[in-house]
Write a structure and sequence with these properties.
It is a single chain. Helix 2 crosses helix 3. This protein has a domain of 48 residues. It is rod-shaped. Helices cover 57% and strands 0% of the residues. The relative contact order is 0.05. With 80 residues, the protein is mainly alpha-helical. Keywords: Membrane, Transmembrane, Transmembrane helix. This is NADH-ubiquinone oxidoreductase 9.5 kDa subunit.
């Protein structure tokens, strides 16, 4: 049976690696952190906005409403 320390070994090694990178290459480490926050914000921010009462704007019309009446023939401007 595997010991507890061997189960958590990958996490400990990952922590050591990230700790070393924070001192040697902080730009890379913070870039990874900011990049990983992007998908999280896509899930969390809309829920927060809904709780604060944000209502999305109504959709913009994509066509002009056609009047509900018979069409009249066009007159004038050489439309004979």
């Amino acid at each position: 049976m595997a010991s507890i320390s061997s189960i958590f070994s990958p996490f400990r090694n990952t922590y050591r690696y990230l700790h070393r990178q924070a001192h040697e290459n902080p730009v890379i480490l913070f870039s990874v952190i900011l990049g990983s926050l992007g998908p999280v914000t896509m899930i969390v921010v809309p829920q927060i906005r809904a709780r604060l009462g944000y209502k999305p704007a109504p959709p913009i019309p994509t066509s002009y409403p056609v009047p509900d009446r018979p069409r009249r023939p066009v007159e004038g401007y050489e439309d004979e």
